[in-house]
Specification:
Blueprint lengths: L4 H20 L11 E4 L2 E6 L12 E12 L2 E7 L7 E15 L5 E15 L4 E12 L16 E2 L20 E5 L5 E11 L15 E12 L10 E8 L1 H4 L4 E2 L9 E10 L4 E9 L10
Antiparallel strand pairs: 1-2, 2-15, 3-14, 4-10, 4-15, 5-6, 5-14, 6-7, 7-8, 7-9, 10-11, 11-12, 11-13
């Protein structure tokens, strides 16, 4: 059976639209200012101080860029191109769940749950600091503290749920933690984010055995890096661990049918008031058996 030229043309247009969406992600889920550029594995930001919202009520200008990747973890390279003078956060979001919610006026919005790792410049002390947080019920990704600051919408993981005796490296409630002290203008740091598994298997970069037992937690390792290089340098500090009581996942074995979570990824930036931010993200590692979902 022969297809008409019009039908073939329609199929061609549909195919191009699917391809475009698979590469760039869904634009309506991103920030309106387009402050973060890029797609696939490479993203960047270059915002001058004059471009930042200087409204006296706004402490920062926030940007968000969704990806079409659904991964169990990611090895991310963060690059600060001007750490001496820039002021802001390069962030990475993982385990991102998008749940559509219908509002009273009939409009549908994304209701997001996710973890975020933020690397921040500290202009006073010449340090790069970091924080790790979990958020629930986020409707406005560009809102102050993702909307959790007023307690009416989004909910941030709170100190009431924290275990006692945790150090800064393992605490989702302590705010910013020191990562490295540096006088360099360009600073490159790798973060390896991976599901924690039992015993000898650690399901981080290079691990290929899918039968290791998943504990239900997440782990993060930090490494020094070099500009434009895909080689990891010296490890920085100890492993940051997030326990199952925070993630909500149940321990089990991949071989017995327990699925390691595989949710969306995104990049995030927070440019401080009256400051600039010039940086980049590179997503290097796709974990085993976590097919890229192009939706």
């Amino acid at each position: 059976m022969k297809l008409s030229k019009k039908l073939i043309a329609a199929f061609s247009v549909a195919a191009m639209l699917v391809t475009a969406l698979s590469v760039t992600g869904c634009k309506k889920d991103d920030d309106d200012d387009d402050m973060i550029q890029g797609s696939n594995k490479n993203y960047s930001i270059n915002v001058s101080a004059s471009e930042v919202n200087t409204d006296e009520k706004a402490a920062a200008n926030r940007g968000y860029k969704s990806t079409t990747f659904k991964h169990r973890g990611e090895l991310v390279r963060f690059t600060f191109n001007n750490s001496k003078n820039d002021g802001g956060v390069l962030g990475f979001i993982w385990d991102l769940e998008n749940n559509k919610e219908k509002l009273s006026d009939g409009e549908k919005v994304n209701n997001r749950n996710f973890f975020v790792l933020g690397l921040a410049t500290n202009l006073t002390d010449g340090k790069i600091q970091y924080y790790v947080s979990k958020y629930y019920n986020v409707k406005d990704i560009s809102a102050r503290n993702f909307g959790a600051h007023d307690g009416t919408n989004a909910v941030k993981y709170t100190s009431a749920l924290a275990e006692t005796g945790r150090t800064c490296e393992n605490d989702l409630t302590s705010g910013f933690c020191d990562l490295v002290s540096t006088s360099a203008e360009k600073v490159v740091i790798w973060a390896d984010i991976y599901p924690t598994v039992n015993n000898t298997q650690t399901h981080k970069a290079g691990t290929t055995d899918p039968t290791a037992s998943f504990t239900g937690g997440w782990s993060i390792d930090f490494y020094k890096g070099t500009a434009d290089s895909e080689t990891l340098g010296e490890k920085i500090g100890s492993t940051f661990t997030i326990d199952p009581n925070v993630t909500g996942y149940v321990a089990g074995s991949a071989s017995s049918g327990t699925q390691i979570p595989q949710n969306y990824l995104a990049v995030y930036a927070n440019v401080y008031k009256d400051k600039a931010l010039n940086g980049a993200w590179f997503l290097k590692h796709d974990y085993y058996h976590d097919d890229v979902v192009e939706e």
